[in-house]
Amino acid sequence: MESPPAETRERYPYWVSIPTRWMDGDPYGHVNNAQYYSFVDTAVTRMLYDKRVLGAPESESIGLCVESGCRFLAPVTFPESIDAGVRLGRVGNSSLRYEVGLFKEGEATPAAVAFFAHVFVDPQTRRPVPLSEEIKAAMRALMLAA
Amino acid sequence: MESPPAETRERYPYWVSIPTRWMDGDPYGHVNNAQYYSFVDTAVTRMLYDKRVLGAPESESIGLCVESGCRFLAPVTFPESIDAGVRLGRVGNSSLRYEVGLFKEGEATPAAVAFFAHVFVDPQTRRPVPLSEEIKAAMRALMLAA
Amino acid sequence: MESPPAETRERYPYWVSIPTRWMDGDPYGHVNNAQYYSFVDTAVTRMLYDKRVLGAPESESIGLCVESGCRFLAPVTFPESIDAGVRLGRVGNSSLRYEVGLFKEGEATPAAVAFFAHVFVDPQTRRPVPLSEEIKAAMRALMLAA
Amino acid sequence: MESPPAETRERYPYWVSIPTRWMDGDPYGHVNNAQYYSFVDTAVTRMLYDKRVLGAPESESIGLCVESGCRFLAPVTFPESIDAGVRLGRVGNSSLRYEVGLFKEGEATPAAVAFFAHVFVDPQTRRPVPLSEEIKAAMRALMLAA
Fold first, then answer.
1. Closest residue by Cα to residue C115 from C66, C68, C83, C72
2. How far apart are alpha carbons D61 and A36 in whole angstroms?
3. pTM of this prediction?
4. CATH tag for C9-140 (out of 3.40.30.10, 3.90.1800.10, 3.30.2350.10, 3.10.129.10)
5. ipTM
6. pLDDT digit string (tens) for B3-18?
7. Which residues of B touch D (CB under 8 A)?
């Protein structure tokens, strides 16, 4: 397991605030690992709604998660709040890969770093649907500058 | 708060087994109160699928929860498994009220007793849809004998 | 089922903002009924931390939920945010009953009205522990004026 | 993204059955991606309780998730039930890496393949605690034969 990159807040262009809920904690007293993925899923989907990739009347496709992963660097405890930073890692023809940093409010280093990959499909046929050039441009604007 | 009725397993005609999940526990070490409602919701919906009230091709309506409540009588701890007993409390024209007992595996007295009320509506208009006589008969068969 | 009281925002003195998460939605497209209880649980626990009833070094007890209930008045859909209003309904010797209104951001009438009752117990013996006079006074200050 | 290995049921020596819950589904109608991690977490923790790595009176440590990941191969829909197969991928001095296949009941190919890594720590100091030789032997017995 290589060491995670030194992820800082500057590396994420899009932010969503996610307060923890009492139920997020598990019997060890900290937010359960699976809930981190719910934070990632929520941050990504909020961004996609905001950018009208999903949820808009003209949206023709839905995003299916095909792969995800997370490195857990520090525990999170209720009632702490999470700032979830989202950037795009890869913009494909009908897929997007996001990189998400979960930071505790006020902290400079992340509590977790995750990735999440969507394939966009037709809700009926579940076949991949290409993203429009407009959406691809909006998503590329959320990539790290080279 | 009046004392809960002496609920025993014999008073529930339909059963669903629900193993607890690690994440169900909250920082106090026991299954979180909101998760009990997920057990109730799951038991009721499994019964409705089984009796073809929901999920069947001919189903024309969906069930919206309009009211629920629960008395918590004993803690539940992972990896315990729950036996959820379901009976019908009331069969209305377009509504059903369920009474659900949550028993730990092997125990004679419930860890919780709950109720849950559905109104059946058209998924598009959200207007109430009457239940068929066939469904009402199937549901009445799950009521306690008078 | 009597009609719920006309609950308005003025009737709740303590507020917690709870953004919905993508995962809160169920296959009917709206926030699942059990998640409403997670909102209630979170709002109450946030208030108790804030008022130092729980989570403070001097806290000697934990709150066990003994009863809850909810009337569901309107669907909630991601990415809507919930304003949860909390008031005290009853202040007992070792118990508290809360009344919680869940309002969609910007709306004057609630999407749901709930109650939730805690008994405070010793974490080891699970025997009831009396609340201090200081805590009881702080909680009475959150009751509706007579 | 390389193609996932051809995972079959034979490659997993330990099994846990996890019925889906109604609430697991998200607005797209299928079990939400984050819930798969709850299935993984539950299967691993059930195995660890069963093998007395966790939860036994002599247990001196708790397992913290440090990394996980999942490839999603097929949707899962309520009320389907999941058979979660667990094997050990790596047995370290104070860490374990599990490989988990999630199969729908009756299916030969997985709906998802995941990994999950625990570091075992002292619950107070959060410092790593070595696993006993007895536990390491029990875990190695769950690795794939070379």
1. C68
2. 23
3. 0.95
4. 3.10.129.10
5. 0.93
6. 555 899 999 999 999 9
7. 17-19, 21-23, 38-39, 41-42, 45-46, 49, 78-79
